Structure formats: structure tokens, C-alpha cells
Amino acid sequence: MRVLVYNELIPEQIPNFDKVVHALGERDFARADVRKLTDTLYRARLNKSDRLLFSLYRARGETCCLILEHIRNHAYEKSRFLSRGAEIDEDKIPVIEADAATPAGDLPLLDPDKPRFNILDKILTFDDEQEAIHGLSPPVIIIGSAGSGKTALTLEKMKQMVGDMLYVSLSPYLVRNARDLYYARNYTNDDQEIDFLSFQEFLESIRVPEGREVTPRDFQAWFVRQPAARRLRDAHKVFEEIRGVITGPVGDEGWLSREDYLDLGVKQSIFSEEDRPAVYDLFEKYRVFLRDSNLYDSNIVSHEYVGAVVPRYDFLVVDEVQDITNIQLYLILKSLRTAGEFILTGDSNQIVHPNFFSWAHIKSLFFEARGLSGAHDGEIVRILRTNYRNTATVTEVANRILKLKHARFGSVDRESNYLVRSVAREPGRLQLLPQTPEVLGDLDDRTRRSTRVAVLVLHPDQKDEARRWFNTPLVFSVQEAKGLEYDSIILFNVVSDEAKAFREVTRDVDPAALETDTLTYARARDKRDKSLEVYKFYINALFVAITRAVRNLYWVESDHGHPLIDVLQMARFSEVTVSAEREDSSLEQWQREASRLEMQGKTEQAQDIRDRVLQQKPVPWSVVDRATFDAQSEAAFASGARKQLLPVFEHALLHWYRPILNRLTLDGFKPALDPEDKAVTLMHRKHFEAYAFKNPGTVLRDVERYGIDHRTPFNLTPVMVAARVGNIPVAKTLIERGADPTLTANHGFTAVDFALERGLTDERFARQKLPELFDLLAPPSIDVQARGRLIKLDRHLMEYVLLRIMGALFYRRLGPWIATRYGHNEGFTAKALAEVVTILPEEVLPDRRKKRTYISSILSKNEVDGTSPYNRFLFRRFRHGHYIVDPDLKIRVGTAWVPYYQVFRPEAWGPDHPPDYYARSGLYSEADIKAMQTREIDRGMQKLAAFRADVLGLETDGNSLGPRSP
Ligand SMILES: Nc1ncnc2c1ncn2[C@@H]1O[C@H](COP(=O)(O)OP(=O)(O)OP(=O)(O)O)[C@@H](O)[C@H]1O
């Protein structure tokens, strides 16, 4: 049997490794003392205390043994691959013979001839090209077409690095995806701390810029109103010139001076010398426009930040570098402690952002700023030619486009001069179809209900025409589609709608020039020829559009006689009968697609799915938000009617709005006198009945009607309710369908905070529910702003967990602590926190992190006036050993920055209700007791008001809802 070893394992450090692996290879399970742990996992015995975890899978028809993990000292509960916290009783697990052990499935991406394999979201082996790059030391530039494994390879490379690291890319979606891939299957690494940041977040981590980043759409809307628009015509082209040529280069100023700009060589600008003065005039107006509209240009901001960036990373990765400009790259590389410790990846055939990117620009940047790439002298560029994403047919057309580009414009640069190989076993399908009502009707009928087919047009303004024919909500312009992939793509009049431009793209190209299997390096003939710069968008857009199709391409054109169709030899694919399979996706799949698109910022399409496919409606009930609640409770107390007070009580109970609960108790409001358990049970039964069932059916009915994140009358989302009641299957289903776990309730809680709040007081809940709920619901990071900088707290950090715990304790514990009469427990102390967290299971907080000394070190490290170089400026120490979240801290809610103490509400703090020892003593009348309790509560409220004013610096509102003395 073949044995492959996970690349993270170091066999030399594992006792008896060779001996045991040899036995496994010979299928001698008895010698290796193999036992079966789960359906897919086995263990072999290394020595008295250590075990080796492995799985069996089939690859290319052979059974392969995949060695996964070294279990030291019987510590199965620490295993990465067994479910967390697994308790295995060695005496009870069954011995198994090799013949009885069957492979758990097929692994199509595994090459059994390789000795090592890698694990990201799936198990795969690298090909020789990839392996060679994996072995290189930085700096490395990885060039490869879409789907060549650049991201996968780079992430695996990062795992070998030690220290502080950065992964950065323009698209927030790609970054999020990369982070999830990195930590897939419980990967952890104590030797590194990684920031996964979009470029905008990277800027924010230096200093949060004012306003919002200008988009091409803002520019276009402004451009068409300018008199110069008539002469310069194309907004995209002008924007590209400004972004790529005027503000993009590295220099001493934020942009090129007029003189320098007019002096540029012909290859350095998209515009002719005659047009350049007009472009520069417009650029000057553009800066005024930015200032007046509170927008910023990230290039100009990057220039401003060059002096402010501090070296803070030991290693960094820039993924999709073709999307960013030189000054942006320069700024990123300036954050390295040692020059040259980087990997850049990219593909210049995928440039559809206006930024005038070329590999030559990057090379000249390294040449001019020699310090950037370190002492390394040799070639740092490596190319990946194999495509793992698209079928052979799709790849063939993509290659023809590359050949056409080469034949027409010459080599863009030496680096991008290559064709792509497909390894897909399936051939895939390509049909060139005419634009007739019958064909379009049929195509639409077969594809409109499927989440796996999207329609692509070249420009955003062509989407309306496409929507006349196609009913799917998945209609995108090419720029929108960048970074997406679908099983099948319908290209709609991409060429016919820009017939003139594409005619230029094919001008003077001899089809015979495309009959080649390699691209030879050749520059364009005429240096003054700007056609590449001008027409690059069209040819790249076509390339990007086509490579979005994983399997099939349906290409609809009104004019099949266009020269481009001819040059690409598409006629052989011409058909009049649509052969797309008809496919209906379920509502669930559509819901997931809507959420996926939402996350990628494709709000238009996501909304269209919700409106037309899911037919979601606004909730028919009124939702009680903060303002409504304040008004409702005032009115209820004024009326004193039970019917009005009950919803106020329930709301206060759910949000632990202590002043209101106290007041209701003092007023003798019956439900408020019940023990909390009873009141909660009644309320849950009344309002959250649907969440009591394991089967999510009832909850999903509302979700289908009103959307996955609709608000219940208490202004909670369904997943918040599931978290609060501890219903794991429902929470899981909602998350799988795309529920957003970052949304907040009236008092600032996200779904996971509800679960944590309960887990911190209820031992059984903590043990049975919290590990899974935390895993499922805790968002990957919390964005905070301290001292004007973004600090992204990754879920792996203790700071993240601590901030969450402080949030979960905010109302129930912190308020009463501050309010206590003797004041010895104000604020969070390491001692109090260490006591509180003992209840949390190992999976949520490992024992080493529960220690008082450790908690204390994290608190003081992040104290706002502290001097640690790793200070994240989270906490303020207002008395010796007493901490609170810093009142100047802001957190990101949706896209807005909100002060922490507006998200969490100190005005909802109140003292615990005084115990009934007065009553028990039997010495006092009922009226006396009430008076004493009232006084006690009043004192607490006053203390809280003073704390809010003195420590938090907040205005106090006179406790309008606090209890008044009778
Ligand atoms: N050696 C390999 N064997 C099998 N699958 C692979 C291999 N390398 C990469 N893949 C898979 O191919 C797909 C594309 O890889 P990846 O997303 O890393 O490509 P990319 O070059 O970054 O693409 P893009 O430029 O479109 O972002 C992924 O699903 C990845 O897991």
C-alpha cells in the first residue's frame, strides 16, 4: 500500500516512525497495532505513549495510507483531526485487520506517486512546478493563470514561516476566503501571528482615512459632467491614467507634477501627448472633487502614509498583485522588517481594474528601490502553467485568446508569455449560439433556475439588455465577475456589443499565427502604438469572462461573422440547438448563493435573488429597536398596565436591562418576582417555540418568507435566537444557509455573545453546547479602531476571546460589579476573569489561557498607556489591577465605526436587585423593606452614573428609567 505523509509532519521527530510506516506499507496492521477510531481515522502504535493517526483513501484506483498526525502522550483530546476534545479509551477501540479496513473515499487531487501531501480545504498533492516553488526562499514572484494554484501554494508556503505575517490582496472576499482556507481543518500554528487584510484594511491599519474610497462608478458619474469629457471620452481610460500613471508611481509627491507627466515617454501613458494637458487639468479638478465629496484615492493616501508605515512583519504575501499599483505595493513592502521576505502572486492577463499594471513596472520598482527586494540577486519570478480549475475546452479557448493577444500586440512582457495546460479529466462543453428568440428562450428556460449558471456582459450598462432575455438574477459585468466562478457561463454579446473595439483587437492578425503551441517573446513593432493600452481592457475582459466557466461555455453573439469569432475559430462550435442541461436549484441553494454574493459585495444580484427567486418580504410585525423600546417602556410605566408592562419586562429580561428589571421588581410586577429560570422558560416558550425543536423546519418557514437574517419582534436575527436557546442543529442550518453571525442586537450582542453569556453562568450549557456554538458562530475577526488605526483581532488571539468575554459579561457582571457598595470589584480584574472563565471548556478556552497570570499579562500588554510593542490598545486601567475596554475604542459594525460604549450600553447597567434578607429578618414592614431596597438600588445607580461620567467620560441622562424613591 502507498504511504503518503502530511507535509507538516517531521518524521525525524517522531519515535519509530520508519518502522511503523513500513509496517503500514506492507499492510501488516498487527505489527503496527492498528485500531479504528472513527469512520475515517485509524491509529497505529509508535511506542508506549505515542500514536500515529492516519486515514485510508483511494487515489487513481489505488488504496493510499495518509499519515496525518503524531499524537503524543495519549493526548487524543488535543488532536487536530479528531473532533475537538475527543476522549478515546484505548482499551475499548477495536483492533482492525488491513483487509477489513476500507478506503473512506476517492481523492481525485492526490497523486499516489508523491511522498507528501498537503491539506487546505481539501487534500491534494502539488505538481513538480508547484513543489519547486514551494521549496524556494523568498523573495518569490509567482505568476500563473486563473486556477493555477497560486493562492493554495502561497498559503502552504506561509505555514512554514515564523513570526509576524501579512496576507494582503485588493478584494476583501479573496482575503476572507484565504483566511478560511488557511485555518481549514483546525490548522493552528503558535509560531506565527498573521494579519489577513484587504488593501483597504491595510491602509486603515496605518491610519483610518477619512471618508470613503472613490470607486470607478463615482468617477464615471463625475466625469460625464465635465466639459473635458467630450474630448477625452472614455471614463475608464481616464481613470486608469489617473490611477496608474499619475498617482500610481512611487515618488516624492502624492502624484506626478504636470511637467513630469507631460514629459513621460510614449510607453508610459495611455494618452497621446496632445491629450495629456487636458487629462492633467481634469486630474486637478478630480482632487477638488474628492475633497468636496469626502472621498479618498487610495494611491494618494498611500503616498501620504509612506512616512507613517512602521516595519512590523517578518514575512508577507501580496495575492493578485496585478490589482494594485506600485505605490500601494511600495507601502506594503515598507512594512517588512527585513527586505525581500515576500511572495507576490498575480496574472497580468486578468487586469480589468484601471491601474496600468505591468510586471515591468514591478521590476523597475525593485530596480529603483533596491532596498525592497533584499540582497537577492537571482531570478525571483516563477511561472505556474497548469490550470486546475477549468475544463480542457474552456482552457483551449482561453489559450487562443492569449495567442491572439500575443499576435496582435506582441508580448506584454516576458513574464506573461505563456500558455496554460488543463488537467481536468472532463472535456467540458462550448457552444456558439445565435441570438434568436428561440435559442435565447430555450437557453433561459434551461438555466434560469440554476445557481450554477451565470450570464456575463462586458459593461454594466449592458446588463439591462441581458435581463430582457435571461431571467436568472446572476447577471454580471466582467469587472463584477472577476474572482467569481460558475459551473457554466453564458457570454452575452460580449463581442457584438463592442464590435468596433474587438475589430481593432483582431486587426491584421493572421489566423495562422494562432496555430502555435508556444508563445515566443516578441515586442510590439511600433513603440508609439498605444493599442495594447487602449484595447487591453477588451481582450483581458474576454479572457476573464471565459475563465469564470469551470466546465461549460455558452457563447451568444448576434454577429457570428465578426472577425474575432473567425480568428478564434469559433465556427466549429456553432450550433442552433441548446444542449445545456436543465437544472433547478433548491431555495436553500439560492439562499446560500445570495449570502455568498452579499459577502463579495455583489449586493445588486443578491437583492435580486431575494426579491425574485426567494420572494422575500418585509416582516409583517413591528420590530422593537432601541428607540422604540425607550418610548415603549416610558409609556408602559406611565400607564402601569400589565398588558403594556409585560413586553417591556420580556425585552429587559432578554437584554438584561437591569434598571428596568429592578424597577419592575420594586413595583411588585408579578412576572419580575419569579426566579430568572422560570421567567426565561416562560418567555422562551412564548416567543421562541419554533427554536425548541431539533428540526429546523418551523424556523426555516419564516426564513424562507422574510430572509435568513430577518429581525424578530425583539430585533434579534434567527441565528441569535438559536444561539440563545442553545439549539445547535438550527444554528448550524442557518449558518450553512448563509446567516450573518456579525449582526448585532439592540445591546450590541452578536449571536455568539448570546451563547457565551449563557455559557459563562450555566455549566451544562458551557459543556454541552458552547464548544460547537462558539466554533460555528464566532466571526473570524473583530475590527477595532484604536488611536485612529484599524486593529483586526483574529479569532485565534486571546485578545479576541477576552473582548468577547468582556462583552458577554457586560450587563450581567460588569454593571453590578461597578455598582457594588464597597467598590472592591469595580472593573475587570485578572482574578475575577480567571474565576469566571473556569467554567469554559478546553475547546473554547484552553487551560493555559485560563490562568490568572496569563490573563493579567494580556490585560497589561494591551493597556492603552502601556509600552509593549505588541500593544493593541484595547483596555484602560483606571485603578490598580482594574480594567475596562478603553472608552476611546471603536468597533466596526457593518461598514461604520461606532464607539464601543455605543454598541454596548452602559446606560443599561444597573445593580443587582437587593436580596430579600430584610424580609427574612421579620423585623420590617413591607413598606420599610421596599424603601430600603429602593435606597440601595438608588445608591448603585448613582455609583454607576458617576462611573460613566468620571471613567468613561459619558454624559449621564439622570437615570430617567431608574427606580424613583416612593
Ligand atoms: N496541485 C493541485 N492539485 C489539485 N488541485 C489543485 C492543485 N493546486 C491547486 N489546486 C486547486 O485548484 C483550484 C485553484 O487554485 P487557486 O485558487 O489557488 O488558484 P489561483 O491561481 O490563486 O487562481 P485565481 O488567480 O483565479 O485566484 C483550487 O481549488 C485549488 O485547491
Automatic annotation (TrEMBL):
Gene Ontology molecular-function annotations: 3'-5' DNA helicase activity; ATP binding; DNA binding; hydrolase activity
SUPFAM superfamilies: Ankyrin repeat, P-loop containing nucleoside triphosphate hydrolases
Start and end residues of each UvrD-like helicase ATP-binding domain: 123-391
GO BP term (any one): recombinational repair
Coiled-coil ranges (or none): 580-607
Any single GO CC term annotated in Swiss-Prot or TrEMBL for this entry: cytosol
Domain of life: Bacteria
Full protein name: UvrD-like helicase ATP-binding domain-containing protein
Organism taxonomic ancestry: Bacteria, Pseudomonadati, Pseudomonadota, Alphaproteobacteria, Rhodospirillales
